[in-house]
Specification:
Blueprint: E1 2-6, E2 12-16, E3 28-36, H1 39-46, E4 62-69, E5 81-84, H2 94-97, E6 123-126, H3 129-132, E7 133-135, H4 142-146, H5 151-161, E8 170-174, H6 178-187, E9 194-199, H7 202-211, E10 215-218, H8 224-229, E11 237-242, H9 247-256, E12 257-265, H10 277-280, E13 286-288, H11 297-305, E14 315-320, H12 324-332, H13 334-337, E15 341-345
Parallel strand pairs: 8-9, 8-11, 9-10, 11-12, 12-13, 14-15
Antiparallel strand pairs: 1-2, 3-4, 3-6, 3-15, 4-5, 5-7
Length: 347
């Protein structure tokens, strides 16, 4: 089969690799029908994730059809249409038993496209199929479901829920890329008083408005005071969500949060950020970090099937699976072409 493989910082190849097979009784092999590229994949290609080794098939988000299962798989069978979660869960360790699947110590967690071969391929082996795949409702399209493999649960769990967004809150979301836009969408479920999106790209600020942001601010021209001034009383954000993954955006969140506020870091960081405790220690500020657990994926799937969750504007560019290299080029140059999520489909 063909797959996208990693060969060190800045080097990737679309070419032939061996077909995946069932190795463990709990495995499933899934034909990839739709797949996308994540900002984390770009971090890997920059060398920010050193655990990814030479020749690894990248990708951790896909929708597909089961073609084979191991003898230990009970709830999936060949022909089932499934969402492949970005997180694999053994279902037995202490973390899995409390729903913290991202920290699985039984061989799961974020492994696809990281520690084992991932989804940017024609087929993928998915460990722990019973607890890591999701049946797709018949009325949900591949493209819509694809966004629930990672960015919707990530934004919801690590951003909105960790930040404890509540009714009337001022929520500042720094970064209006796919994760930031998904945070806008899911923050609205809690009726905040005002959602403010901050970004450098005009196209992304326009996308944030369409997603439901009440205010948008160009980070190049607006300073900290301008962001705080958009809160209900000028003191700053009740919740500041970091959705980029660079030191500057995290540090911006620490400057625009109000006393007693919460900072929810979602971005993947490859460089150190300075934590100014000399300023923050007195402000009762809570800072959370996290890897998504995907414990909310079933809920989000139900909302999507019921028409209560709108993901239609998040995919801006579509490709065939064999156009993977072109899709990467477009996604990596989002600042000039307005790309949000790219989706690739089996043709």
């Amino acid at each position: 089969m063909k797959a996208l493989t990693y060969h060190g910082p800045g080097r990737r190849t679309w070419g032939e690799v061996p077909d995946p097979v069932v190795r463990d009784p709990e495995d499933a092999v899934v034909r990839v029908d739709a797949v996308t590229i994540c900002g984390t994949d770009l971090h890997i290609l920059k060398g920010d994730v050193p655990e990814v080794t030479e020749g690894r098939v990248l990708g951790h988000e896909a929708v597909g059809t089961v073609v084979d299962v191991g003898p230990g798989v009970r709830t999936f069978a060949a022909g089932d249409r499934v969402l492949i979660s970005c997180i694999s869960a053994c279902g037995r360790c202490a973390y899995c038993r409390q729903g913290t699947y991202g920290q699985c110590t039984g061989g799961g967690g974020w492994i696809l496209g990281h520690l084992v071969d991932g989804t940017q391929a024609e087929y993928v082996r998915t460990p722990f199929a019973d607890t890591s795949l999701h049946h797709l409702p018949g009325g949900v399209t591949d493209e819509r479901a694809l966004l629930l493999a990672d960015i919707l649960p990530t934004s919801f769990e690590v951003g909105v829920r960790n930040g404890r967004v509540g009714p009337g809150d001022t929520v500042v979301i720094v970064g209006a890329g796919p994760i930031g836009l998904a945070a806008v969408t899911t923050a609205r479920l809690y009726s905040p008083g005002r959602i403010v999106a901050v970004d450098l790209a005009p196209s992304r600020l326009e996308a944030a408005k369409r997603a439901g942001a009440d205010e948008v601010l160009d980070a190049a021209t607006g300073d900290d005071a301008a962001i705080r001034a958009l809160s209900r009383d000028g003191l700053g954000a009740d919740v500041a969500i970091e959705a980029v993954g660079v030191p500057e955006t995290f540090e911006l969140c620490t400057r625009v949060v109000r006393p007693g506020g919460r900072i929810a870091n979602v971005g993947v960081h490859g460089r150190p950020a300075t934590l100014h405790l000399e300023d923050l220690w007195i402000k009762n500020v809570t800072i959370t970090t996290g890897l998504v657990d995907t414990s909310t994926t079933p809920l989000l799937l139900e909302m999507l099937a019921a028409g209560r969750l709108d993901t239609d504007d998040l995919v801006t560019h579509r490709f065939g699976l064999d156009e993977m290299q072109d899709a990467y080029d477009v996604f990596a140059d989002a600042g000039s072409n307005g790309a949000l999520k790219v989706a690739l489909f089996r043709t």
